[in-house]
Design a protein that fits this description.
about 280 residues, alpha/beta, Rossmann fold, two-stranded antiparallel sheet, binds S-adenosylmethionine
Amino acid sequence: MTNGCRVTDPKDSPGSTQAEVNTDEVSIARVYDFCLGGKDNFAVDRAAAQAMMEVVPETPLLAQVNRCFLRQAVRYLAGEAGIDQIIDIGSGLPTAGNVHEIAQEKNPDARVVYVDNDPVVLAHARALLATDANTTVISADLREPDVIFGHPETRRLIDTSRPFAILLGGILMHLEDEEDPEGIAANLRDRLPAGGHLLVSNTCDTGEPRAAELARVFAENGMGTRCFRTWDEQIRYFDGLELVEPGLVPNNEWRPAGDVPDPDNPAHALHIGGLGRKVR
Ligand SMILES: C[S@@+](CC[C@H](N)C(=O)[O-])C[C@H]1O[C@@H](n2cnc3c(N)ncnc32)[C@H](O)[C@@H]1O
């Protein structure tokens, strides 16, 4: 994937949250923002989203319902499961119902570390989080868990000896098989103490031809990899964990709160999510 921008790190430039953006290059985070109805995207991002919508017109619906799943899972984590520390890897641009806002509605002391490798996410999130001492954003890559867990901000906010949650919403699908998504999921699971949780959501290969077509359009429009893996492949991300009910299911079926648009659309089968708990 290409991030398409360069950021003046506000830490190096006090008072500034400006990103120098290359508006000619597509960014997954900005395409996703467009699909969610956001304004932080450019013509090149909208054109890429449009190309996907020609294959699967429900592309924005799938993004929106992925957020419904994420919100419901975070409500569960911060409420019923008593989780007060979350690492959200591949967090994307700030949007309505950010993870820290949902978690802090349930528990005002909840701590959240956002992680993304797109520098524009860092700039926007820093601006949003400037006044929240319990929330931070770091620039790091999913493929380097040691960097994420060794980062001073992660160490400041996350006590890894106590239960915490790792969110992998719509990100493992951006790794090629050679990048070992299963190994990375296993590495992250190993870091969880008993009571810790792992959330995963991804596009799913349901056998319908549009899946392969969409993966092709994604790559051809400068967005890199978007793998459609089967349910059987993705359930392995939860090896050794106990699945929270209802398990690994289409996003619209995970404890829906009544906010799922077009709930009976068959395209929902193309995006699945689940939450696993480490028992010991
Ligand atoms: C589809 S968005 C998902 C956003 C959010 N997690 C959600 O589920 O609504 C994927 C995000 O993952 C980020 N991303 C992709 N590959 C990454 C990597 N290797 N390391 C860190 N972030 C990555 C992208 O920049 C983008 O913001």
